[in-house]
From TrEMBL:
It comes from Saccharomonospora viridis. This is Inosine-uridine nucleoside N-ribohydrolase. The lineage of its organism: Bacteria, Bacillati, Actinomycetota, Actinomycetes, Pseudonocardiales. GO terms for cellular component: cytosol. GO terms for molecular function: purine nucleosidase activity. It comes from the Bacteria. InterPro entries: Inosine/uridine_hydrolase_dom, IUNH, Ribo_hydro-like. GO terms for biological process: purine nucleoside catabolic process.
Length: 320
């Protein structure tokens, strides 16, 4: 049927677009959605994920609630200043109510069951804090071989958004990010905010989506608070669909250009907490120095045909 996919998410406006992208794609078998704290508390991310799937008429997709807090230290701040108090610009109540109940047993149980029952390896797309995924990898090493790859939206090569150094998803649980990105058990693609910012869409793109039909109009209606933030962050009328860029790579491998680079995560309590340290020195130079313990190579997305990517997103989100 196509790529077998699970999304781990903390909706969030860009998460809504990402879920819809997978739900609308005929070449994707969306096996399930798991939720995590992040942009808003876990009860809200779970409700939002279920309502987005209901909007896409995908009541067949199971949803399980995951971690309500980081692995070790408290979560300091939500992203309501970006996504609104309910995660969807105050408009979540306008979405249809989900009829399918939340799956019992939690996110790791659903992830395990879906991996166990799949006849082929599954791609997991974590687009929120990595707490659920770190827990899965630690608890079920017998399932590592059933994960085709993790396509992770997170991290930053130059500067962050939650702090000067750290991107929100990694900053929200640096210990979990360290466990996932440096463990080496499962192939990882890291889609950092440096690239997702370059993939930002403008008002014309959004207006085209809104005019495409009921789904496009409903998605566009979730964006006012998000647009207001990115007006300041970008300096022009547009917005960044971070998580949808990662889902695009999961659906169409190679739509993003990647480089295999050593990555580590800063877990100290200094000003760089949550930073992803990506070694972009030439391999010949890296070979002359000793690689620190706990640093493994990850496929880092560094470039894309930006117009082709935006066209791909728009095409998929306006399919029906």
């Amino acid at each position: 049927m196509g790529t077998k996919l699970i999304i781990d998410t903390d909706p969030g406006v860009d998460d809504a677009f990402a879920i819809a992208l997978a739900a609308q794609s005929d070449d994707v078998e969306l096996l399930g959605v798991t939720t995590v704290f992040g942009n808003v508390p876990i009860e809200t991310t779970t409700r939002n994920a279920r309502r987005i799937l209901a909007l896409c008429k995908r009541g067949d997709v199971p949803v399980a609630e995951g971690a309500a807090r980081p692995l070790v230290h408290p979560h300091l701040r939500r992203a309501k200043y970006v996504h609104g108090l309910d995660g969807l610009s105050g408009r979540s109540a306008a979405l249809p109510e989900a009829e399918r109940p939340v799956e019992p047993g939690g996110a790791v149980r659903l992830l395990s069951r879906l991996l166990e029952s799949s006849t082929e390896p599954v791609t997991i797309v974590p687009i929120g804090p990595l707490t659920n995924i770190a827990t899965l990898l630690a608890a079920r090493p017998d399932l590592h071989h059933r994960i085709a790859r993790l396509v992770i939206m997170g991290g930053a090569l130059t500067h962050g958004n939650s702090s000067a150094a750290a991107e929100f998803n990694v900053w929200s649980d640096p210990e979990a990010a360290h466990r996932v990105l440096t463990g080496g058990e499962v192939p990882c693609v890291l889609v950092p905010m440096d690239l997702t910012y370059r993939c930002a869409v403008d008002r014309e793109w959004l207006d085209t989506l809104a005019a495409s039909g009921s789904l496009g109009a409903a998605l566009a209606a979730l964006t006012p608070d998000y647009l207001a933030h990115y007006r300041k962050a970008l300096g022009w009328e547009g917005m960044v669909l971070h998580d949808a860029v990662a889902v695009a790579e999961a659906i169409r491998p190679g739509i993003l250009r990647t480089e295999s680079l050593p990555v580590s995560v800063e877990t100290s309590f200094g000003p760089a907490r949550g930073a992803t340290v990506v070694d972009r020195r030439r391999p010949e130079v890296r070979a002359e120095t000793e690689v620190p313990d706990g640093v493994t190579s990850v496929d880092v997305a560094v470039d894309a045909d930006l117009d082709a990517l935006r066209a791909f997103l728009l095409e998929r989100l306006t399919l029906r």
